[in-house]
């Protein structure tokens, strides 16, 4: 099955297939469907490390990209853990909503092909540009340093957006516990006054920067690793639609927020 793959891709592809099957089995056993979410922030670092190891951790450019990806992994894993994502019952609320809208058999098919299968493939694909960095090895230059700075800028933006969201929900939880009003019921200040999904925007931008490292390495603009950030952008588009449909159903004022505030790109609000 793996014989036709380039030798350097065999181990990452085997890891991708193995973790996809494992997450599917765990979802069947536990009836929780966030096992992919739990591995989402870990596997890119694993894939990146396989290429750094294949270069004996001696290639500065490969190490740079791998290090940035691992830094992203650490931040997202920490953020997911503090929200209870790794605790029993820490399933993403959207899976429960989706289950309620689908026949059980249809959701199980969706679980096999999309949740466990497609999403794990996507995690592999967004990390794949490091393969082209590995394949076009040369010392890092000014473009690589600039890309690293942009990566860190978007990582800081995502961190800030997630922290503002965390602070808001902690405040909201305390207000609800005290039977006090919570305004419109959703976050619309800070970065969220300029984008309805600033964390989504920064997340997508991060993986486009990773792709740009492959281009800078000499793989060309139309190399095969382009598929990763493209598919990730499409996934976030669908995820944002689904998330907003749930939020709009809960909070009447959200429709006005949608009218005023940019969907992704941070931009001064209208009106």
Characterize the structure shown.
The protein has 271 residues and is an all-alpha fold. It has one domain. 72% of the residues lie in helices and 0% in strands. Helix 1 (7-30) runs antiparallel to helix 6, helix 3 (43-54) packs antiparallel against helix 4 (60-82) and helix 6 (104-127) crosses helix 10 (227-250). The longest helix has 36 residues, at 142-177. It is globular and about 60 Å long. The termini are far apart. The mean pLDDT is 95.
Q: What is shown here, in short?
A:
The protein has 271 residues and is mainly alpha-helical. The chain has helices at residues 7-30, 35-40, 43-54, 60-82, 93-101, 104-127, 129-135, 142-177, 198-219, 227-250, 254-260.
């Amino acid at each position: 099955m793996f014989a036709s793959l380039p030798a350097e891709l065999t181990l990452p592809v085997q890891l991708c297939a193995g973790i996809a099957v494992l997450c599917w089995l765990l979802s069947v056993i536990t009836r929780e469907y966030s096992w992919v979410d739990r591995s989402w922030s870990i596997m890119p670092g694993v894939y990146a490390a396989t290429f750094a190891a294949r270069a004996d951790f001696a290639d500065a450019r490969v190490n740079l990209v791998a290090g940035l990806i691992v830094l992203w992994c650490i931040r997202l894993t920490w953020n997911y853990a503090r929200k209870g994502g790794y605790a029993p019952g820490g399933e993403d609320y959207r899976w429960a909503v989706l289950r309620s809208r689908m026949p059980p058999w249809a959701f199980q098919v969706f679980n096999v092909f999309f949740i466990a299968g497609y999403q794990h493939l996507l995690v592999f694909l967004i990390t794949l540009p490091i393969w082209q960095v590995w394949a076009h090895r040369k010392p890092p230059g000014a473009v690589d340093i600039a890309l690293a700075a942009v990566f860190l800028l978007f990582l800081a933006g995502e961190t800030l957006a997630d922290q503002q969201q965390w602070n808001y929900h902690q405040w909201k939880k305390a207000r609800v516990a005290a039977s006090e009003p919570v305004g419109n019921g959703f976050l619309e200040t800070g970065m969220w006054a300029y984008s309805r999904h600033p964390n989504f925007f920064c997340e997508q931008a991060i993986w486009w920067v990773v792709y740009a490292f492959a281009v800078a390495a000499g793989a060309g603009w139309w190399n095969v690793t382009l598929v990763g950030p493209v598919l990730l952008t499409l996934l976030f588009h669908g995820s944002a639609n689904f998330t907003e449909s749930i939020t709009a159903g809960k909070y009447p004022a959200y429709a006005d927020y949608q009218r005023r505030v940019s969907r992704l790109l941070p931009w001064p609000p209208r009106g």
